[in-house]
Write a structure and sequence with these properties.
Helix content: 40-55%
Number of strands: 4
Order of helices and strands: HHEEHEE
Number of helices: 3
CATH superfamily: Winged helix-like DNA-binding domain superfamily/Winged helix DNA-binding domain
Distance between the termini: 9 Å
CATH topology: Arc Repressor Mutant, subunit A
Strand order of the largest sheet: 1-2
Largest sheet: 2 strands, antiparallel
CATH architecture: Orthogonal Bundle
């Protein structure tokens, strides 16, 4: 998929995408859904709190379907930014 083929992101999707990139840069692993919900990286609040892990899951699935990230099969806490 080419960069121009990616669909644009909503505000919440962009916020979670940027959070995930920062989290991976700081820790070296992909955040869990609970960590995305909490919104902290290195003790600092980065994004607004999401109430339910299912909301974080929905946003991550949207990022995958829109071509912004890829989750390797059977790899826990792994993500590839496209």
């Amino acid at each position: 998929m080419l960069m121009s083929d990616k669909l644009t992101l909503t505000f919440d999707q962009r916020e979670v995408y940027d959070f995930m990139r920062q989290f991976v840069k700081e820790t070296g692993v992909c955040p869990t859904y609970a960590e995305i919900c909490a919104g902290y990286v290195g003790g600092e609040k980065v994004i607004k709190k999401t109430r339910w892990p299912s909301g974080a899951h929905r946003i991550v699935k949207a990022l995958i379907s829109r071509g912004w990230i890829e989750r390797p099969y059977r790899a826990q806490r792994a993500v590839k930014f496209l």
